[in-house]
Write a structure and sequence with these properties.
Elements lengths: L2 H14 L3 H14 L3 E2 L13 E5 L2 E6 L5 H4 L1 E7 L4 E12 L2 E9 L12 E11 L4 E7 L18 H4 L4 H4 L3 E4 L6 H11 L4 E13 L4 E3 L5 E4 L2 H15 L6 E7 L16 H7 L8 H6 L2 E5 L2 E2 L22 E4 L9 H13 L5 E4 L10 H9 L2 E6 L1 E3 L6 E4 L2 H14 L10
Parallel strand pairs: 1-2, 4-13, 4-14, 14-18, 15-19, 16-17
Antiparallel strand pairs: 2-3, 3-13, 5-6, 5-10, 6-9, 7-8, 7-10, 11-12, 12-20, 16-18, 19-20
Helix pairs in contact: 7-12, 10-12
């Protein structure tokens, strides 16, 4: 695989993965095509056996067993997250105002709201329903076509809009679907959509749906230097970790986990602060008491996008720590442990990057500003494993359309591939 092929695959994945559920579907399909099998009670996870994966709603774990005993070699883990800030539909969303039909929404995560105005929006997610036999079933939906929009207020009606316009999500962000139809009910609309797919649906009982921008991902710039897309944070890392895992040579125990709910704190059954990963790892061990020993010999790389220094806002960065697009993957450091990076993990990453002729950048927040966080500190705290926070430099994080460099995901892929090949032990220890 070369960079162009990698980026083409990334754009395709970004287009498919419109929600965390669709991201898991796209990831699991690629795993199946590569010979990975769904985990069940009959799965063989012994040394040298085939790869397995386990899904839980919008999260997924994939494992490629190594050639030697797990407790001797340890686990090489990469973590990312499948969710992105968006507009999620409320349970009773129908709003009829002045002859128009809108759907009430709730903002998921720390979304940058202004870019959501005047975009062609579609709707996707998961629908739970009662079938014709009285059983509860679930299906994914993705309308793909633009069916909604959040119109801006004209400048003539708000002359201060370019100077001081705040956004009230409750009053101003409800997407417009149609001229008012007094009979429209979203659940009935979803039922008919599912029936058109030949599913036996008696009643739609519930759903988890979000709006998304229908503009497709693209490689842009005078020389194709950039990748523009929704959900780069953090589907870019999910895809990069997946490709590294698929290309792992099977010599080392290698694991990819992509969690849902990072953007809202990770505290859920399938989030990084839930038991999903720990339960999976314990299932690989002869007894639960072996977990601390395994974690001593393991490492987690938390891959989540990093803030690139913006040419129009350079003062938002520390002068010595302003990552550049296409400058290589970024090691993220924070003294207050908002990132879990330690010096030994960062040192190993630098060695691996040097082996692959990949440049590495550093990010530390200004001392007078607070930074965000990732699944890294959560996973480190839950498992007690050495964890490193890294990411691809990005503009417009949490916007409806983000921007990254077209070289950086490929560069990160090469380093993660080397990480999955790195012989045990990862660290020589104190001397």
């Amino acid at each position: 695989m070369n960079k162009d092929v990698f980026n083409e695959g990334l754009l395709t994945f970004l287009s498919e993965a419109t929600t965390p559920f669709h991201a898991v579907k796209a990831l699991s399909r690629r795993l199946r095509e590569a010979g990975f099998a769904p985990l069940d009670e009959h799965s063989n996870c012994s040394p040298g056996s085939g790869g397995v994966f386990y899904e839980q709603a919008g999260s997924i774990i994939a494992l490629r067993p190594g050639s030697g005993p797990l407790l001797e070699s340890g686990l090489r883990m990469v973590g990312a997250h499948t969710d992105s800030p968006c507009l999620m539909v409320k349970p009773q969303p129908e709003q009829r105002n002045l002859g128009y039909l809108q759907l009430g929404i709730e903002v998921y995560g720390g979304a940058l709201l202004n870019p959501w105005f005047d975009r062609d929006l579609s709707l996707a997610g998961r629908v739970s329903y009662e079938d014709d036999k009285g059983a509860v079933a679930t299906s994914l939906v993705d309308f793909r076509d633009p069916i909604a929009i959040v119109p801006s207020l004209a400048i003539h009606l708000d002359r201060e809009a370019n100077k001081n316009r705040s956004v009230n999500a409750q009053l101003q962000m409800a997407p417009l679907l149609a001229l008012n139809d007094e009979k429209f009910c979203l659940r009935d609309f979803l039922r008919e959509h599912l029936r058109e797919r030949d599913l036996e649906v008696a009643e739609v009982l519930d759903y988890e749906l979000c709006f998304y921008d229908t503009q497709p991902p693209a490689q842009i710039g005078l020389k194709g230097e950039f990748i523009a897309s929704a959900r780069l944070d953090n589907l870019l890392s999910c895809y990069t970790g997946l490709q590294a895992l698929l290309e792992a040579d099977g010599s080392q125990w290698s694991l990819l986990i992509c969690n849902d709910h990072e953007e809202v704190g990770s505290r859920s059954a399938s989030g990084a602060q839930g038991p999903m990963l720990q339960h999976f790892i314990q299932g690989l061990l002869p007894d639960a008491g072996a977990l601390p020993l395994l974690m001593q010999r393991s490492m987690m790389i938390s891959a989540d996008n990093a803030h690139a220094v913006h040419p129009s806002y350079p003062d938002k960065h520390d002068e010595q720590h302003g990552p550049m697009l296409n400058g290589g993957p970024v090691i993220k450091v924070n003294a207050s442990q908002r990132y879990a990076t330690s010096s030994d993990g960062a040192a190993l990453f630098r060695v691996l990057a040097r082996q692959e002729s990949v440049d590495v950048q550093s990010f530390a927040m200004r001392a007078d500003m607070a930074c965000g966080s990732t699944i890294g500190p959560i996973t480190a705290g839950e498992l007690g494993v050495t964890t490193l926070d890294i990411g691809v430099p990005t503009f417009a994080m949490h916007s409806i359309r983000e921007l990254a460099g077209s070289d950086d995901a490929w560069a990160l892929h090469r380093v993660l591939s080397a990480y999955f090949r790195q012989p045990a032990p990862l660290f020589a220890g104190p001397r």
